[in-house]
Amino acid sequence: MIATVVGVGLIGGSLAISLKEKGVANWIIGVDHSQENLAKAQELKIIDEGSTLEDALQRSQLIILAIPVDAMLKALPSILDKIQPHHVIMDVGSTKEKLLQLVAGHPKRGRFVAAHPMAGTEYSGPEAAVRNLFVQKTMVLCDVKNSDEDALELIESMVDKLNMRLVYMNAEEHDLHTAYVSHISHITSFALALTVLEKEKEQGRIFELASGGFESTVRLAKSSPDMWVPIFKHNRSNVLDVLDEHIHQLQQMRELLAQEDYDTFYKLIQKSNKIRKILK
Amino acid sequence: MIATVVGVGLIGGSLAISLKEKGVANWIIGVDHSQENLAKAQELKIIDEGSTLEDALQRSQLIILAIPVDAMLKALPSILDKIQPHHVIMDVGSTKEKLLQLVAGHPKRGRFVAAHPMAGTEYSGPEAAVRNLFVQKTMVLCDVKNSDEDALELIESMVDKLNMRLVYMNAEEHDLHTAYVSHISHITSFALALTVLEKEKEQGRIFELASGGFESTVRLAKSSPDMWVPIFKHNRSNVLDVLDEHIHQLQQMRELLAQEDYDTFYKLIQKSNKIRKILK
Questions:
Q1: pLDDT number for residue B213
Q2: For position B280, what pLDDT does the model report?
Q3: For testing the chain B interface, which of A190, A224, A233, A234 should be mutated: the one with the most B CBs within 10 Å?
Q4: With CB atoms counted within 10 Å of each terminal CB, which end of chain B scores lower, N or C?
Q5: Which of A180, A192, A208 faces B167 most closely, judged by CB atoms?
Q6: Can you tell me the distance from the alpha carbon of A113 to that of A103, in angstroms, rounded to the nearest whole number?
Q7: What is the DSSP letter of B109?
Q8: A238 near A176, Cβ under 8 Å?
Q9: Which domains occur in chain B, in start order?
Protein backbone atom coordinates (compact mmCIF):
# COMPACT_ATOMS: atom_id res chain seq x y z
CA MET A 1 0.00 0.00 0.00
CA ILE A 2 1.08 3.55 -0.69
CA ALA A 3 0.47 5.84 2.28
CA THR A 4 0.73 9.62 2.50
CA VAL A 5 1.73 11.47 5.63
CA VAL A 6 0.71 15.12 5.68
CA GLY A 7 3.03 16.90 8.12
CA VAL A 8 6.38 15.15 8.47
CA GLY A 9 7.16 16.28 12.01
CA LEU A 10 7.60 14.31 15.24
CA ILE A 11 4.35 12.32 15.02
CA GLY A 12 3.94 12.14 11.23
CA GLY A 13 7.59 11.26 10.74
CA SER A 14 7.60 8.63 13.49
CA LEU A 15 4.44 7.10 12.02
CA ALA A 16 5.99 7.06 8.56
CA ILE A 17 8.98 5.12 9.91
CA SER A 18 6.73 2.63 11.73
CA LEU A 19 4.32 2.10 8.81
CA LYS A 20 7.22 1.13 6.59
CA GLU A 21 8.98 -0.97 9.19
CA LYS A 22 5.88 -2.94 10.16
CA GLY A 23 4.92 -3.54 6.54
CA VAL A 24 1.71 -1.48 6.68
CA ALA A 25 2.92 0.55 3.70
CA ASN A 26 5.66 -0.14 1.19
CA TRP A 27 5.94 3.46 -0.06
CA ILE A 28 5.48 6.68 1.89
CA ILE A 29 4.71 10.00 0.26
CA GLY A 30 5.35 13.05 2.42
CA VAL A 31 3.40 16.29 2.10
CA ASP A 32 4.40 19.38 4.06
CA HIS A 33 4.00 23.12 3.64
CA SER A 34 7.70 23.40 4.46
CA GLN A 35 9.92 22.30 1.59
CA GLU A 36 12.80 22.26 4.02
CA ASN A 37 11.02 19.71 6.26
CA LEU A 38 10.19 17.58 3.22
CA ALA A 39 13.81 17.58 2.05
CA LYS A 40 15.00 16.80 5.56
CA ALA A 41 12.49 13.93 5.93
CA GLN A 42 13.64 12.44 2.64
CA GLU A 43 17.29 12.83 3.57
CA LEU A 44 16.58 11.01 6.85
CA LYS A 45 14.77 8.27 4.84
CA ILE A 46 11.59 8.92 6.82
CA ILE A 47 9.63 9.27 3.58
CA ASP A 48 10.30 7.86 0.12
CA GLU A 49 9.34 11.03 -1.72
CA GLY A 50 7.90 14.45 -1.16
CA SER A 51 4.97 15.60 -3.25
CA THR A 52 1.84 17.73 -3.37
CA LEU A 53 -1.41 16.69 -1.72
CA GLU A 54 -3.12 16.45 -5.13
CA ASP A 55 -0.52 14.08 -6.50
CA ALA A 56 -0.46 12.08 -3.27
CA LEU A 57 -4.25 11.61 -3.38
CA GLN A 58 -3.95 10.21 -6.91
CA ARG A 59 -1.57 7.50 -5.85
CA SER A 60 -2.17 6.55 -2.21
CA GLN A 61 -4.98 4.82 -0.36
CA LEU A 62 -4.21 5.90 3.21
CA ILE A 63 -3.76 9.58 4.09
CA ILE A 64 -2.58 10.46 7.59
CA LEU A 65 -2.95 14.06 8.74
CA ALA A 66 -0.29 14.94 11.29
CA ILE A 67 -0.57 18.71 11.45
CA PRO A 68 -1.50 21.09 14.29
CA VAL A 69 -5.18 20.92 15.23
CA ASP A 70 -6.02 24.39 13.88
CA ALA A 71 -4.48 23.54 10.50
CA MET A 72 -6.45 20.28 10.62
CA LEU A 73 -9.74 22.20 10.94
CA LYS A 74 -8.92 23.99 7.70
CA ALA A 75 -7.49 21.04 5.83
CA LEU A 76 -9.85 18.17 6.58
CA PRO A 77 -13.07 19.42 4.93
CA SER A 78 -11.31 20.31 1.68
CA ILE A 79 -9.46 16.97 1.64
CA LEU A 80 -12.75 15.12 2.17
CA ASP A 81 -14.15 17.11 -0.78
CA LYS A 82 -11.41 15.77 -3.02
CA ILE A 83 -11.15 12.10 -2.05
CA GLN A 84 -12.38 8.98 -3.83
CA PRO A 85 -14.34 6.12 -2.22
CA HIS A 86 -11.20 3.96 -1.84
CA HIS A 87 -9.40 6.56 0.27
CA VAL A 88 -9.08 6.32 4.04
CA ILE A 89 -8.18 9.49 5.97
CA MET A 90 -6.91 9.41 9.54
CA ASP A 91 -5.81 12.28 11.78
CA VAL A 92 -3.57 12.11 14.85
CA GLY A 93 -4.72 15.32 16.54
CA SER A 94 -4.84 15.96 20.29
CA THR A 95 -8.38 17.39 20.31
CA LYS A 96 -11.45 15.91 18.67
CA GLU A 97 -14.76 17.63 19.42
CA LYS A 98 -14.43 20.67 17.15
CA LEU A 99 -13.01 18.62 14.30
CA LEU A 100 -15.72 15.98 14.41
CA GLN A 101 -18.48 18.56 14.72
CA LEU A 102 -17.07 20.31 11.68
CA VAL A 103 -17.19 17.26 9.40
CA ALA A 104 -20.26 15.62 10.96
CA GLY A 105 -22.46 16.35 7.95
CA HIS A 106 -19.86 15.85 5.25
CA PRO A 107 -21.02 13.33 2.60
CA LYS A 108 -17.65 11.55 2.80
CA ARG A 109 -17.42 11.55 6.62
CA GLY A 110 -17.36 7.74 6.56
CA ARG A 111 -13.90 7.71 4.96
CA PHE A 112 -12.43 9.51 7.98
CA VAL A 113 -11.21 7.81 11.16
CA ALA A 114 -10.41 10.13 14.07
CA ALA A 115 -7.34 8.90 15.95
CA HIS A 116 -5.02 10.10 18.69
CA PRO A 117 -1.86 8.16 19.52
CA MET A 118 -0.97 8.80 23.18
CA ALA A 119 2.73 9.16 22.51
CA GLY A 120 5.14 11.96 21.81
CA THR A 121 8.15 13.86 23.06
CA GLU A 122 8.85 17.53 23.71
CA TYR A 123 10.68 17.87 20.40
CA SER A 124 9.31 18.69 16.96
CA GLY A 125 10.19 18.54 13.28
CA PRO A 126 11.39 15.61 11.14
CA GLU A 127 14.65 15.35 13.12
CA ALA A 128 12.53 14.52 16.18
CA ALA A 129 10.94 11.48 14.50
CA VAL A 130 11.95 8.24 16.19
CA ARG A 131 11.48 4.51 15.68
CA ASN A 132 9.19 2.63 18.05
CA LEU A 133 7.54 5.79 19.41
CA PHE A 134 4.18 4.01 19.36
CA VAL A 135 5.07 0.52 20.56
CA GLN A 136 2.87 -0.48 23.51
CA LYS A 137 1.27 2.97 23.54
CA THR A 138 -2.45 3.65 23.35
CA MET A 139 -4.25 4.67 20.17
CA VAL A 140 -7.59 6.31 20.87
CA LEU A 141 -10.18 6.06 18.10
CA CYS A 142 -13.09 8.47 18.42
CA ASP A 143 -16.73 8.21 17.30
CA VAL A 144 -15.95 5.14 15.20
CA LYS A 145 -19.65 4.55 14.54
CA ASN A 146 -19.44 7.40 12.04
CA SER A 147 -16.62 5.80 10.06
CA ASP A 148 -17.23 3.27 7.27
CA GLU A 149 -16.60 -0.29 8.32
CA ASP A 150 -13.79 -0.92 5.82
CA ALA A 151 -12.06 2.36 6.70
CA LEU A 152 -12.17 1.49 10.41
CA GLU A 153 -10.91 -2.02 9.72
CA LEU A 154 -7.91 -0.70 7.82
CA ILE A 155 -6.99 1.59 10.71
CA GLU A 156 -7.58 -1.10 13.35
CA SER A 157 -5.37 -3.48 11.44
CA MET A 158 -2.69 -0.76 11.19
CA VAL A 159 -2.87 -0.11 14.95
CA ASP A 160 -2.48 -3.82 15.58
CA LYS A 161 0.60 -4.03 13.35
CA LEU A 162 2.11 -1.01 15.10
CA ASN A 163 1.81 -3.01 18.34
CA MET A 164 -0.41 -0.40 19.97
CA ARG A 165 -3.31 -0.79 22.39
CA LEU A 166 -6.71 0.29 21.07
CA VAL A 167 -9.14 2.38 23.10
CA TYR A 168 -12.51 3.64 21.82
CA MET A 169 -14.10 6.87 23.05
CA ASN A 170 -16.49 9.50 21.92
CA ALA A 171 -15.01 12.90 21.10
CA GLU A 172 -16.34 14.55 24.27
CA GLU A 173 -14.85 11.93 26.56
CA HIS A 174 -11.59 12.13 24.67
CA ASP A 175 -11.24 15.88 25.07
CA LEU A 176 -12.16 15.71 28.74
CA HIS A 177 -9.70 12.95 29.63
CA THR A 178 -6.81 14.34 27.59
CA ALA A 179 -7.22 17.66 29.43
CA TYR A 180 -6.34 15.70 32.60
CA VAL A 181 -3.69 13.33 31.38
CA SER A 182 -1.90 15.48 28.85
CA HIS A 183 -2.90 19.12 28.42
CA ILE A 184 -2.62 20.16 32.09
CA SER A 185 0.84 18.58 32.33
CA HIS A 186 2.01 20.87 29.56
CA ILE A 187 0.51 23.96 31.17
CA THR A 188 2.18 23.25 34.52
CA SER A 189 5.46 22.61 32.78
CA PHE A 190 5.31 25.87 30.81
CA ALA A 191 4.42 27.73 34.00
CA LEU A 192 7.17 26.04 35.98
CA ALA A 193 9.76 27.01 33.36
CA LEU A 194 8.50 30.61 33.47
CA THR A 195 8.65 30.59 37.26
CA VAL A 196 12.23 29.45 37.32
CA LEU A 197 13.31 31.73 34.46
CA GLU A 198 11.61 34.65 36.20
CA LYS A 199 12.94 34.12 39.70
CA GLU A 200 16.21 32.33 39.24
CA LYS A 201 18.49 34.91 37.75
CA GLU A 202 21.57 32.76 38.15
CA GLN A 203 20.76 30.40 35.34
CA GLY A 204 24.15 28.75 35.57
CA ARG A 205 23.08 27.51 38.97
CA ILE A 206 20.04 25.77 37.46
CA PHE A 207 22.31 24.04 35.02
CA GLU A 208 24.63 22.90 37.78
CA LEU A 209 21.95 21.76 40.18
CA ALA A 210 19.07 20.52 38.06
CA SER A 211 18.68 16.78 38.45
CA GLY A 212 16.17 14.24 37.24
CA GLY A 213 13.22 15.65 39.17
CA PHE A 214 13.49 19.13 37.72
CA GLU A 215 14.23 17.82 34.26
CA SER A 216 11.17 15.59 34.26
CA THR A 217 8.70 18.21 35.48
CA VAL A 218 10.04 20.90 33.17
CA ARG A 219 10.99 19.03 29.99
CA LEU A 220 7.53 19.48 28.44
CA ALA A 221 8.20 23.24 28.51
CA LYS A 222 10.42 22.67 25.50
CA SER A 223 7.26 21.85 23.50
CA SER A 224 6.30 23.95 20.50
CA PRO A 225 3.68 26.71 20.86
CA ASP A 226 2.65 26.00 17.23
CA MET A 227 1.32 22.67 18.34
CA TRP A 228 0.09 23.55 21.82
CA VAL A 229 -1.69 26.90 21.52
CA PRO A 230 -4.24 25.39 19.07
CA ILE A 231 -4.78 22.45 21.43
CA PHE A 232 -5.50 24.73 24.40
CA LYS A 233 -7.74 26.83 22.16
CA HIS A 234 -9.76 23.83 20.99
CA ASN A 235 -10.03 22.31 24.43
CA ARG A 236 -10.36 25.61 26.26
CA SER A 237 -13.31 24.80 28.48
CA ASN A 238 -11.91 21.49 29.77
CA VAL A 239 -8.43 22.92 30.20
CA LEU A 240 -9.78 25.92 32.16
CA ASP A 241 -11.69 23.56 34.39
CA VAL A 242 -8.65 21.41 35.22
CA LEU A 243 -6.42 24.45 35.51
CA ASP A 244 -8.75 26.03 38.09
CA GLU A 245 -8.66 22.87 40.13
CA HIS A 246 -4.87 22.73 39.88
CA ILE A 247 -4.46 26.36 41.01
CA HIS A 248 -6.84 25.59 43.87
CA GLN A 249 -4.72 22.61 44.96
CA LEU A 250 -1.55 24.72 44.84
CA GLN A 251 -3.19 27.49 46.84
CA GLN A 252 -4.30 24.97 49.41
CA MET A 253 -0.73 23.69 49.80
CA ARG A 254 0.53 27.26 49.93
CA GLU A 255 -1.85 28.13 52.78
CA LEU A 256 -0.91 25.03 54.78
CA LEU A 257 2.76 25.93 54.43
CA ALA A 258 2.09 29.58 55.32
CA GLN A 259 0.16 28.49 58.41
CA GLU A 260 2.73 25.81 59.21
CA ASP A 261 0.03 23.16 59.32
CA TYR A 262 2.41 20.34 58.53
CA ASP A 263 0.06 17.57 59.65
CA THR A 264 -2.52 18.45 57.02
CA PHE A 265 0.26 19.01 54.48
CA TYR A 266 1.53 15.50 55.25
CA LYS A 267 -1.93 14.05 54.70
CA LEU A 268 -2.28 15.85 51.35
CA ILE A 269 0.99 14.36 50.14
CA GLN A 270 -0.14 10.93 51.31
CA LYS A 271 -3.32 11.42 49.30
CA SER A 272 -1.37 12.45 46.22
CA ASN A 273 0.76 9.30 46.64
CA LYS A 274 -2.35 7.35 45.55
CA ILE A 275 -1.30 8.21 42.00
CA ARG A 276 1.08 5.23 42.46
CA LYS A 277 -1.86 2.91 41.96
CA ILE A 278 -2.85 4.29 38.60
CA LEU A 279 0.48 5.21 37.10
CA LYS A 280 2.14 2.47 35.15
CA MET B 1 38.26 2.31 55.29
CA ILE B 2 35.18 1.32 57.27
CA ALA B 3 32.23 3.63 56.58
CA THR B 4 28.90 3.87 58.34
CA VAL B 5 25.68 4.87 56.62
CA VAL B 6 22.96 6.06 58.98
CA GLY B 7 19.63 5.59 57.17
CA VAL B 8 19.78 2.79 54.60
CA GLY B 9 17.09 4.15 52.27
CA LEU B 10 17.26 5.32 48.66
CA ILE B 11 20.16 7.76 49.10
CA GLY B 12 22.01 6.07 51.94
CA GLY B 13 21.66 2.67 50.32
CA SER B 14 22.75 3.89 46.89
CA LEU B 15 25.76 5.63 48.46
CA ALA B 16 26.68 2.45 50.34
CA ILE B 17 26.68 0.51 47.07
CA SER B 18 28.83 3.15 45.33
CA LEU B 19 31.32 3.57 48.18
CA LYS B 20 32.03 -0.13 48.10
CA GLU B 21 32.11 -0.41 44.33
CA LYS B 22 34.46 2.53 43.83
CA GLY B 23 36.78 1.36 46.57
CA VAL B 24 36.13 4.29 48.90
CA ALA B 25 35.23 1.87 51.68
CA ASN B 26 35.89 -1.84 52.03
CA TRP B 27 33.31 -2.42 54.76
CA ILE B 28 29.96 -0.71 55.25
CA ILE B 29 28.10 -0.64 58.55
CA GLY B 30 24.42 0.25 58.32
CA VAL B 31 22.53 2.00 61.11
CA ASP B 32 18.78 2.47 60.92
CA HIS B 33 15.95 2.91 63.41
CA SER B 34 14.06 0.27 61.43
CA GLN B 35 15.40 -3.23 62.04
CA GLU B 36 13.41 -4.35 59.03
CA ASN B 37 15.26 -1.89 56.76
CA LEU B 38 18.59 -3.00 58.18
CA ALA B 39 17.80 -6.66 57.56
CA LYS B 40 16.59 -5.86 54.05
CA ALA B 41 19.72 -3.81 53.28
CA GLN B 42 21.91 -6.66 54.42
CA GLU B 43 19.92 -9.21 52.43
CA LEU B 44 20.35 -7.01 49.34
CA LYS B 45 24.10 -6.80 50.10
CA ILE B 46 23.88 -3.01 50.30
CA ILE B 47 25.61 -3.08 53.69
CA ASP B 48 28.00 -5.61 55.20
CA GLU B 49 26.43 -5.51 58.64
CA GLY B 50 23.82 -3.70 60.65
CA SER B 51 24.77 -2.27 64.02
CA THR B 52 24.14 0.49 66.54
CA LEU B 53 25.47 4.00 66.12
CA GLU B 54 27.67 3.59 69.20
CA ASP B 55 29.33 0.48 67.87
CA ALA B 56 29.65 1.99 64.39
CA LEU B 57 31.43 5.07 65.79
CA GLN B 58 33.95 2.80 67.53
CA ARG B 59 34.95 1.15 64.29
CA SER B 60 34.46 3.52 61.35
CA GLN B 61 36.14 6.70 60.21
CA LEU B 62 33.46 8.07 57.87
CA ILE B 63 29.87 8.48 59.00
CA ILE B 64 27.24 9.45 56.43
CA LEU B 65 23.87 10.68 57.65
CA ALA B 66 21.13 9.89 55.16
CA ILE B 67 18.01 10.54 57.18
CA PRO B 68 15.15 13.05 56.75
CA VAL B 69 16.21 16.63 57.50
CA ASP B 70 14.17 16.93 60.69
CA ALA B 71 15.71 13.75 62.08
CA MET B 72 19.10 15.18 61.06
CA LEU B 73 18.54 18.27 63.21
CA LYS B 74 18.06 16.03 66.21
CA ALA B 75 20.82 13.56 65.41
CA LEU B 76 23.76 15.70 64.28
CA PRO B 77 24.52 17.62 67.52
CA SER B 78 24.51 14.49 69.64
CA ILE B 79 26.65 12.62 67.12
CA LEU B 80 29.15 15.50 67.10
CA ASP B 81 29.21 15.28 70.90
CA LYS B 82 30.30 11.65 70.68
CA ILE B 83 32.89 11.62 67.91
CA GLN B 84 36.68 11.44 68.06
CA PRO B 85 39.12 13.69 66.16
CA HIS B 86 39.66 11.07 63.42
CA HIS B 87 35.95 10.90 62.51
CA VAL B 88 34.47 12.65 59.48
CA ILE B 89 30.71 13.19 59.39
CA MET B 90 28.83 14.04 56.20
CA ASP B 91 25.11 14.58 55.65
CA VAL B 92 23.19 14.31 52.37
CA GLY B 93 20.19 16.45 53.32
CA SER B 94 18.16 18.63 50.95
CA THR B 95 18.20 21.74 53.18
CA LYS B 96 21.20 23.30 54.87
CA GLU B 97 20.61 26.64 56.59
CA LYS B 98 18.88 25.40 59.75
CA LEU B 99 21.28 22.52 60.17
CA LEU B 100 24.41 24.62 59.78
CA GLN B 101 23.08 27.33 62.09
CA LEU B 102 22.37 24.66 64.67
CA VAL B 103 25.93 23.28 64.76
CA ALA B 104 27.75 26.56 64.00
CA GLY B 105 29.16 26.87 67.49
CA HIS B 106 29.79 23.19 68.14
CA PRO B 107 33.41 22.53 69.23
CA LYS B 108 33.63 19.66 66.74
CA ARG B 109 31.95 21.51 63.83
CA GLY B 110 35.13 21.08 61.77
CA ARG B 111 34.63 17.31 61.53
CA PHE B 112 31.35 17.85 59.69
CA VAL B 113 31.01 18.37 55.91
CA ALA B 114 27.58 19.46 54.69
CA ALA B 115 26.76 17.78 51.38
CA HIS B 116 23.79 17.39 49.06
CA PRO B 117 23.96 15.03 46.10
CA MET B 118 21.59 16.29 43.39
CA ALA B 119 20.25 12.86 42.55
CA GLY B 120 17.35 10.71 43.57
CA THR B 121 14.20 8.99 42.44
CA GLU B 122 10.59 9.07 43.64
CA TYR B 123 11.04 5.79 45.50
CA SER B 124 12.25 5.19 49.04
CA GLY B 125 13.62 2.48 51.32
CA PRO B 126 16.53 0.06 50.83
CA GLU B 127 14.78 -1.64 47.88
CA ALA B 128 14.96 1.69 46.05
CA ALA B 129 18.75 1.88 46.31
CA VAL B 130 20.42 1.64 42.90
CA ARG B 131 23.92 1.44 41.46
CA ASN B 132 25.32 4.46 39.67
CA LEU B 133 22.69 6.86 41.04
CA PHE B 134 25.39 9.50 41.51
CA VAL B 135 27.49 9.08 38.38
CA GLN B 136 27.89 12.43 36.58
CA LYS B 137 25.55 14.09 39.07
CA THR B 138 26.36 17.18 41.11
CA MET B 139 27.47 17.07 44.74
CA VAL B 140 26.97 20.40 46.50
CA LEU B 141 29.23 21.07 49.46
CA CYS B 142 28.11 23.91 51.73
CA ASP B 143 30.08 26.34 53.90
CA VAL B 144 33.25 24.29 53.47
CA LYS B 145 35.32 27.00 55.16
CA ASN B 146 33.90 25.73 58.45
CA SER B 147 35.08 22.17 57.88
CA ASP B 148 38.55 20.95 58.83
CA GLU B 149 40.89 20.67 55.87
CA ASP B 150 41.47 16.92 56.22
CA ALA B 151 37.74 16.23 56.61
CA LEU B 152 36.99 18.24 53.48
CA GLU B 153 39.77 16.48 51.57
CA LEU B 154 38.39 13.08 52.45
CA ILE B 155 34.95 14.05 51.18
CA GLU B 156 36.31 15.71 48.02
CA SER B 157 38.31 12.61 47.24
CA MET B 158 35.18 10.48 47.77
CA VAL B 159 33.15 12.71 45.43
CA ASP B 160 35.87 12.37 42.83
CA LYS B 161 35.89 8.58 43.08
CA LEU B 162 32.10 8.53 42.79
CA ASN B 163 32.53 10.33 39.46
CA MET B 164 30.44 13.31 40.59
CA ARG B 165 30.81 17.00 39.79
CA LEU B 166 31.64 19.24 42.75
CA VAL B 167 29.89 22.55 43.39
CA TYR B 168 30.55 24.80 46.40
CA MET B 169 27.90 27.08 47.87
CA ASN B 170 26.99 28.71 51.09
CA ALA B 171 23.96 27.35 52.93
CA GLU B 172 21.74 30.30 52.01
CA GLU B 173 22.46 30.03 48.30
CA HIS B 174 21.93 26.29 48.46
CA ASP B 175 18.49 26.56 50.05
CA LEU B 176 17.43 29.28 47.61
CA HIS B 177 18.52 27.44 44.47
CA THR B 178 17.18 24.04 45.52
CA ALA B 179 13.78 25.66 46.12
CA TYR B 180 13.79 26.43 42.37
CA VAL B 181 15.35 23.33 40.91
CA SER B 182 13.97 20.68 43.19
CA HIS B 183 11.45 21.60 45.88
CA ILE B 184 8.96 23.42 43.62
CA SER B 185 8.96 20.49 41.16
CA HIS B 186 7.78 18.25 43.97
CA ILE B 187 5.04 20.65 45.05
CA THR B 188 3.66 20.95 41.50
CA SER B 189 3.77 17.22 41.08
CA PHE B 190 1.91 16.57 44.34
CA ALA B 191 -0.67 19.21 43.37
CA LEU B 192 -1.03 17.78 39.86
CA ALA B 193 -1.67 14.31 41.23
CA LEU B 194 -4.30 15.72 43.61
CA THR B 195 -5.91 17.63 40.74
CA VAL B 196 -6.22 14.55 38.60
CA LEU B 197 -7.35 12.33 41.48
CA GLU B 198 -9.92 14.95 42.46
CA LYS B 199 -11.36 15.65 39.02
CA GLU B 200 -10.83 12.49 37.05
CA LYS B 201 -13.21 10.04 38.58
CA GLU B 202 -12.66 7.47 35.87
CA GLN B 203 -9.23 6.43 37.03
CA GLY B 204 -9.12 3.57 34.57
CA ARG B 205 -9.08 6.17 31.84
CA ILE B 206 -5.94 7.77 33.27
CA PHE B 207 -4.29 4.40 33.21
CA GLU B 208 -5.27 3.81 29.59
CA LEU B 209 -4.36 7.25 28.33
CA ALA B 210 -1.44 8.42 30.43
CA SER B 211 1.68 8.63 28.30
CA GLY B 212 5.21 9.86 28.88
CA GLY B 213 4.26 13.50 29.42
CA PHE B 214 1.85 12.81 32.25
CA GLU B 215 4.11 10.22 33.80
CA SER B 216 7.05 12.59 33.87
CA THR B 217 5.22 15.55 35.40
CA VAL B 218 3.43 13.41 37.99
CA ARG B 219 5.99 10.76 38.94
CA LEU B 220 7.46 12.88 41.76
CA ALA B 221 4.05 12.69 43.44
CA LYS B 222 5.00 9.15 44.44
CA SER B 223 7.61 10.67 46.78
CA SER B 224 7.43 10.05 50.51
CA PRO B 225 5.90 12.70 52.82
CA ASP B 226 8.34 11.55 55.53
CA MET B 227 11.16 12.97 53.46
CA TRP B 228 9.41 15.97 51.89
CA VAL B 229 7.37 17.59 54.66
CA PRO B 230 10.54 18.29 56.70
CA ILE B 231 12.22 19.74 53.60
CA PHE B 232 9.33 22.14 52.93
CA LYS B 233 9.29 23.02 56.63
CA HIS B 234 13.00 23.82 56.73
CA ASN B 235 12.96 25.75 53.47
CA ARG B 236 9.54 27.30 54.03
CA SER B 237 10.33 30.89 53.17
CA ASN B 238 12.08 30.12 49.87
CA VAL B 239 9.47 27.54 48.89
CA LEU B 240 6.62 29.98 49.61
CA ASP B 241 8.34 32.58 47.49
CA VAL B 242 8.73 30.27 44.48
CA LEU B 243 5.27 28.83 44.97
CA ASP B 244 3.72 32.30 44.90
CA GLU B 245 5.48 33.03 41.63
CA HIS B 246 4.37 29.70 40.19
CA ILE B 247 0.73 30.28 41.14
CA HIS B 248 1.03 33.74 39.60
CA GLN B 249 2.32 32.27 36.33
CA LEU B 250 -0.51 29.74 36.23
CA GLN B 251 -3.08 32.44 36.94
CA GLN B 252 -1.64 34.52 34.14
CA MET B 253 -1.98 31.62 31.70
CA ARG B 254 -5.48 30.96 32.99
CA GLU B 255 -6.54 34.56 32.35
CA LEU B 256 -5.10 34.56 28.83
CA LEU B 257 -6.99 31.39 28.05
CA ALA B 258 -10.19 32.74 29.62
CA GLN B 259 -9.89 35.93 27.56
CA GLU B 260 -8.87 33.98 24.47
CA ASP B 261 -5.73 36.06 24.10
CA TYR B 262 -3.87 33.39 22.17
CA ASP B 263 -1.17 35.71 20.85
CA THR B 264 0.09 36.54 24.33
CA PHE B 265 -0.34 32.90 25.34
CA TYR B 266 1.86 31.93 22.38
CA LYS B 267 4.53 34.41 23.44
CA LEU B 268 4.51 33.08 27.00
CA ILE B 269 5.11 29.54 25.74
CA GLN B 270 7.92 30.81 23.51
CA LYS B 271 9.45 32.46 26.56
CA SER B 272 9.16 29.26 28.58
CA ASN B 273 10.89 27.42 25.70
CA LYS B 274 14.07 29.27 26.75
CA ILE B 275 14.44 26.57 29.38
CA ARG B 276 15.90 24.54 26.47
CA LYS B 277 19.10 26.53 26.80
CA ILE B 278 19.67 25.70 30.42
CA LEU B 279 18.35 22.17 30.67
CA LYS B 280 20.83 19.47 29.96
A1: 83
A2: 61
A3: A190
A4: C
A5: A208
A6: 11
A7: G
A8: yes
A9: 2-169 (3.40.50.720), 174-278 (1.10.3660.10)
